[in-house]
């Protein structure tokens, strides 16, 4: 039985997938509001639940000279404005245990970055806020190993956990997605999310920054939806080629509606006719 998580009237873990989308990093308040408003309009028209996401600090950029974001204080102020003015729940990630309480006062979901999902103190601090967590599976971990990450959150008093697939390291500068991981992680009793845009990332692919192949976002998303997911994570931007972070793998805002229409049709077919594919816990 999968734990259902309710956020602002949306249920994650039952029915149609929920979209988690926004620019990779908070570049400006104006951009955040523009993206949130447009994506909400699209999702409302398609009958899709929507959660805005963006980072106040990209603490794991390739180069020390890369843009990181506005920082904690300003970033949380912008996220709160998006939440209030657009009327959508918000998600952001933390990198240090001391950030958990302050971030939880604003956001609806706390995200644990993939590289940090084994950091026990970080997981425990985030879990103890009582907020739902989205924990990304590390690029170097087996999906079976995520049961121990989940256990850390539960032992800290929080069972509102989503586990997120975002690709696995496959040689230098390449990721590959093992779609079995979605069923494996869902068998632990928690909803699963597929991170469609980071799964097509090429870490360090442009030398001092990461590259990516955004043309593969749709086919990989189709595959994930056909397996059965509870949430879909996508980074979107009005002008990905000039974005300050993760541009090569982000989806253009103008292409989002058509992409979602196709995925919703497939999701409805899978869940209404076939049901989510699940496996026994190994």
Give an account of the 3D structure.
With 282 residues, the chain is α/β, with parallel strands linked by helices. It has one domain (5-274): Aldolase class I (TIM Barrel), CATH 3.20.20.70. It is built from 8 helices and 15 strands. The chain has an 8-stranded parallel barrel, surrounded by 5 helices. A two-stranded antiparallel sheet has the order 1-2. The protein has a two-stranded antiparallel sheet with strand order 9-10. Helix 4 (120-127) crosses helix 5. InterPro entries: Aldolase_TIM, DAHP1/KDSA, KDO8P_synthase.
How are the secondary structure elements laid out?
Layout: E1 5-7, E2 10-12, E3 18-22, H1 29-46, E4 50-53, H2 72-86, E5 90-93, H3 100-104, E6 109-112, H4 120-127, E7 133-136, H5 146-155, E8 161-165, E9 168-169, E10 175-176, H6 180-186, E11 192-195, E12 201-202, E13 211-212, H7 217-227, E14 231-237, E15 251-252, H8 256-274
Parallel strand pairs: 3-4, 3-14, 4-5, 5-6, 6-7, 7-8, 8-11, 11-14, 14-15
Antiparallel strand pairs: 1-2, 9-10, 12-13
InterPro entries: Aldolase_TIM (IPR013785), DAHP1/KDSA (IPR006218), KDO8P_synthase (IPR006269)
Family: Belongs to the KdsA family.
Catalytic activity: D-arabinose 5-phosphate + phosphoenolpyruvate + H2O = 3-deoxy-alpha-D-manno-2-octulosonate-8-phosphate + phosphate
């Amino acid at each position: 039985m999968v734990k259902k998580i309710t956020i602002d009237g949306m249920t994650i873990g039952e029915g149609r997938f929920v979209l988690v989308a926004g620019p990779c990093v908070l570049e400006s308040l104006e951009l955040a509001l523009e993206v949130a408003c447009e994506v909400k309009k699209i999702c409302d028209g398609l009958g899709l639940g929507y959660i805005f996401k963006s980072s106040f600090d990209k603490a794991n950029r390739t180069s020390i000279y890369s843009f990181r974001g506005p920082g904690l204080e300003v970033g949380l102020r912008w996220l709160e404005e998006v939440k209030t003015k657009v009327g959508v729940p918000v998600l952001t990630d933390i990198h240090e245990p001391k950030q958990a309480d302050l971030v939880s006062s604003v956001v609806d979901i706390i995200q644990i970055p993939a590289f940090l999902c084994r950091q026990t103190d970080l997981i425990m601090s985030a879990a103890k806020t009582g907020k739902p967590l989205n924990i990304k599976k590390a690029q170097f971990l087996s999906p079976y190993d995520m049961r121990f990450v989940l256990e850390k959150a539960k032992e800290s008093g929080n069972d509102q956990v989503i586990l997120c697939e975002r690709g696995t390291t496959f040689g230098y500068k390449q990721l590959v997605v093992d779609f079995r991981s979605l069923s494996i992680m869902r068998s632990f009793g928690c909803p699963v999310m597929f991170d469609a845009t980071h799964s097509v990332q090429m870490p360090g692919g442009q030398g001092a920054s990461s590259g990516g192949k955004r043309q593969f976002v749709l086919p990989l998303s189709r595959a994930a939806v056909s397996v059965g997911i509870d949430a879909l994570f996508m980074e979107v931007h009005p002008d990905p080629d000039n974005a300050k972070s993760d541009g090569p793998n982000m989806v253009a805002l103008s292409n989002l509606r058509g992409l979602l229409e196709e995925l919703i049709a497939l999701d409805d077919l899978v869940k209404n006719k076939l049901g989510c594919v699940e496996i026994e816990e190994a």
